[in-house]
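Sequence in, structure out.
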Amino acid sequence: MKIVLLFALSIGCGGAGLSVPEIEAPTSVGPSEDFSITVSEVSNATVGYWWSVDGEAYPEIEGPDVQQDTPTIGAAWTVIVRLELDGEYSPPAAVTIPIVGMDTGFLSP
């Protein structure tokens, strides 16, 4: 038991380690609605964003703001974020944001 506890503590403790960032995001978005997310940040840390829709990457989106140029219904946005500070990376955090519309049977909140 002590070995397991020591192992768990050694994995979780990395000195000044970065915590998993917290993401605030809409619970859903309309098919043509622009939206933003908010990420908890650490002073001087860089936030990396990776956006996709149904597994298709959108590398041109490099920040927290999304403009839906082509209306998308029945799909979902996924964003993965990670903090970087002095060559050290936080564990990633992810959120999925459904894209909903009147003709999908769902209503946007």
